[in-house]
Each structure stands twice: as C-alpha cells, then as structure tokens.
Amino acid sequence: MCRAINSIEAAVAQKQSRCCDQAWPQRRVRDHKANKMKTSMTILGGLLAVTGLMGCASTKQSVAMPDQGKTVEDVSKGRIYVMQSPFAFNIASHHVPVPVWQGNREIGVLVGRAYLCWEQEPGTVEISCGTRGSRGVSLRVEAGKVYYVIQYIGPDWRSMGPMTPPGGGELATKLEVVSEEVGLKLLKKCKPAAASK
C-alpha cells in the first residue's frame, strides 16, 4: 500500500512539475508585457508633465506695441518686427522663453510662433537674444521704413557630445534680417506678444 501511495504522490508531483514548466513561459511573457506597459506609461506621464510645465511660458512685450493697423505709427521712426521660427522637431524650441534685447534694453520675450514689434529712432541698432551661443544683428534704421527680423531657435550642436541624450544639450538662437515678402509671410503665422504688466 505504501508503494502505491508513493507512486501516486510521484505521479502527482511529476504532473504538477510539467504544468508549472508549461505555465512558466506564458507567465514570463505576461510579466514582460506588464513591465513594458509600466515603463511606457511612466515615460508618457513624464513627457506630459514636462510639456505642461513648459506650456506655462508666455510671450510678453516690455515696450509699447505700436498700432498694428498702420504701417508705421510715428513716421519719424522705423518699425522693427522680431518673429520666432522654432526648430521643427525640437519640442523645447516651441516652449522656451527667449528674451530679445536692443542694446541693453529688453524689448520682450518670445515663445513659440510669436512676434515683438516696436518703433525706433533712425540710426544703427544692435538686436540680440538672451541665450548662450546666439548671434545678433546690426540694423540701420531709417524713418518710415519697416524691418523684419527672424529669430531662429534650435539645438546648439556645439554643446552636444557623444553622451548627450536625445533632446539634451542647449538651445541657440540666430537672428536674420529678411525681405518684406518673407517677413510678412511669417508674420501672418505668428501671434503678437502680450504687453507686460
């Protein structure tokens, strides 16, 4: 009788062993899928949080915005538009605030597709941006004329190394004076800066 019980126990143990061996690959695949889903949800949550925080930045103009219904409000001055053109696939370049300066006077801050506009007495002016590695422009302003400057923003490739993660590194800006045709085309795609309070 003992022998029969031992053989039954052995058969049951062998059957349980086979069931566990067959279930193991299924459980392993299920656990792997669950871990992959957790990782994906964590990354997605992080991206949404970063995008939400970066969406808080806003465009502002520190100097008076001239009447946009007129070509030049004060004909004894020239009008200057600075418009931002963010780098296509770089999310940060659409959300990072970039200050614009004329000499040592802050004109305003640009974020995304926006523009600053002000009028300036005739003479040579230096326009720059407040980012490291940015290139400004020198502009000779004449009375009654309108000038269009595009602010390109994108990755500063010089700040990137072999260990820089995707989307890492610093942003750089470049200002460029463009023709009236090019300037008006981009101006239609941009929103005016809000007056700072």
Give a quick rundown of the structure:
This protein has 2 domains: 1-54; 60-195, Immunoglobulin-like (Sandwich). 31% of the residues lie in helices and 32% in strands. The protein has 2 helices and 11 strands.
Strand order of the largest sheet: 7-6-3-4-1-11
- Tell me what the CATH architecture of the largest domain is: Sandwich
- The level-1 CATH class of the largest domain: Mainly Beta
Order of helices and strands: HEEEEEEEEEHEE
Characterization of this structure:
There is one protein chain. This protein is an alpha/beta fold and 197 residues long. It folds into 2 domains: 1-54; 60-195, Immunoglobulin-like (Sandwich). The protein is 31% helix and 32% strand. It is built from 2 helices and 11 strands; from the N terminus they run αβββββββββαββ. It has helices spanning 2-54, 180-187, and strands at 60-61, 78-86, 98-102, 105-110, 114-120, 123-129, 137-141, 146-155, 171-178, 191-192, 194-195. A 6-stranded mixed sheet has the order 7-6-3-4-1-11, with no helix packed on it. The chain is elongated, with a radius of gyration of 31 Å. The N and C termini lie far apart (96 Å). The relative contact order is 0.16. Mean pLDDT is 75; it is low at 44-56.
